[in-house]
Design goal:
- 2 copies of one chain form a homodimer.
- In chain A, 35% of the residues lie in helices and 24% in strands.
- The first copy, chain A, has 8 helices and 13 strands.
- In chain A, α1 (70-87) packs parallel to α2 and α5 packs antiparallel against α6.
Chain lengths: 339, 339
């Protein structure tokens, strides 16, 4: 049977941005307003199996073994439509996607999800694409997914064409032993999703100044990584996070992702670094949870202190992750036959 | 005795800015980067008595009957030096200043203090100055003090000369019955004072965009006051406060005035207005306390809800205040003799 050959599984890791992606120069192609830079997270990954089939009317999707929301299904179908056009197929896809981290943890899964989906979908059609090409395709599903294709510390360049706005490794995962100690302060889903948020970025009078100065900050972060200079990293990473959230809070309507406990963690982290010399800094995505980027030696101390700060804080912890990889296909509910 | 004639008392009211003053085009003259607009607060005032004396070596100052900090004394002496030069005297001043609100409440007193000091000091020398002239002189002590000389709703214009950067009433106190319900979330003194903060404003990449667009917001606030349009007022006042705090948080080093409870109050206020139609909006000065500007009919509800929100919130409440006024001189510790 042909369809037993059209199956592949891929795993991709979540990432946390040191220089943020917020706002597009082209919404349809998700061409970002500025280049960004992130670290992959080894402990947070999505594993996705794609099987292309001729005998299905529509694409199907399960997330963690369950039926997805209508919004999630539509977004994946739109990505599959794009992949069909670019890969030259009319087959339908059966997609099974699983995160190893709790869905309701407020940890964004779209980066790892669209990276894994893209890699598995391409492989299941037996097509060979370069890392750059995979990164560009993943970007069309979720901008930050472009950064979850390469491994380690990753830069995603802005560009004016689909082909050129891709991500690549600037330093491998083992270059610098950083740890992301994530303070989960809220398990609530975002009130405003990232896609809608990106569209609102230009409504802030501050967005253009943030975008214009992003290249200088990115250069400093690259320098801090090359030299393993934690103090420089901390200064720029916190500043860049503050700049993005300042843009969010001054958009129309304003987007406030911070919660009271978010602010308490941010202030504590600054104090631990400035007053006590702990190598830790904070950065936040479009949500209330605080990513505490630590030198590995200080990660346990930071985790302990976060737990002491409030009983309402849960902790996730991750080292630096590799790039997206193919796995032996896993078929659930239907016998796998790859031969 | 000549000195018994050189005494005067004045009272000036605190004010809360709807369009914020943050950053100067000239630090020495306190010429602001942008025009601002505020409402005087009838319930929060400073009463200051100035006696000019020939037989003193240095100026003396008491605040609420007690010796001031060295920093406060130096700032008042510098203002008195300036007044001596402009008013043509070499006398020394004995200054007694009293706030009717608790010093440690985190409510800025420099606006009412320098307005009252300026008015009393001028009157005690039997000089007649116009409201504009008094406003300009008060500005040299504390920028926002310029707005505490006129009454009601007050606009302070930016300008390139000392004489032209003055404040004037745009609507009297009884034009619109607004109430400021102040949620005191912290009694701590500011870690970074306003004067140092103003100097740091230009270190934010966002300051120029805030300044460039301030005139448009000021026009909208004036329109909202003229038409008593609470919804328009709320939109612009909250946006302008967010813009100033975004500039603060993105200065180098960053200034975070918000505390966890600050954020909780801001979110609650937004919800009460947007979800339930209460006429209330928030605005914050360079501190963590939240000024909840209310239509008078909704002030009690807002005060009750703030009290319910947290046992750590104290409440102050004020209507719209008048301009600075002269009072019969009060002499403490020395017999008054005005005849």
């Amino acid at each position: 049977m042909a369809d037993t050959y059209n199956i592949a599984s891929a795993r991709a890791y979540s990432n946390i941005a040191f220089i943020k992606y917020w706002g597009n120069r082209d919404h349809l192609l998700r061409l970002p307003a500025n280049s960004s830079l992130s670290m992959n997270l080894s402990a947070l990954h999505t594993t996705t199996t794609v099987r292309w089939l001729a005998d299905m009317a529509v694409d199907s999707l399960t997330i963690n073994g369950e039926a997805p929301t209508v919004a999630a299904l539509r977004r994946v179908q739109a990505h599959l439509d794009m992949l069909r056009r670019r890969l030259g197929t009319t087959l339908r896809a059966q997609v099974d996607s699983r995160n190893n981290f709790p869905m309701g943890a407020g940890i964004a899964s779209s980066a790892s999800a669209f990276a894994a989906l893209t890699m598995a979908a391409v492989a299941a059609l037996h097509q060979q694409l370069s890392e750059r090409e995979l990164s560009a395709l993943a970007r069309l599903g979720s901008g930050s997914a472009a950064r979850s294709i390469p491994g380690g510390f990753v830069e995603w360049r802005f560009a004016n064409t689909h082909e050129d706005s891709t991500a690549e490794t600037i330093a491998p995962a083992d270059h610098w032993h950083l740890v992301d100690v994530i303070a989960i302060v809220s398990h609530q889903h975002k009130r405003v999703g990232s896609t809608a948020g990106h569209a609102s970025a230009s409504s802030s009078i501050f967005q253009s100044a943030r975008v214009e100065t992003a290249a200088a900050r990115l250069k400093e972060v690259k320098q801090s990584i090359a030299q393993r200079d934690f103090e420089l990293l901390a200064q720029v990473v916190e500043a860049d996070s503050n700049l993005m959230h300042a843009v969010m809070m001054t958009s129309r309507p304003p987007l406030f992702y911070w919660q009271p406990l978010t602010l308490a963690v941010m202030e504590a982290v600054r104090g631990w670094r400035e007053d006590e010399g702990l190598r830790v800094c904070y950065t936040l995505d479009a949500g209330p949870n605080v990513h505490c980027i630590c030198a590995a030696d200080d990660a346990q101390t930071v985790a302990d202190r976060l737990s002491d700060l409030s009983p309402d804080i849960d902790i996730l912890r991750s080292g630096v992750g590799g790039g997206a990889v193919l796995l032996p296909p896993v078929v659930r509910g239907r016998a796998a036959c790859t031969k």
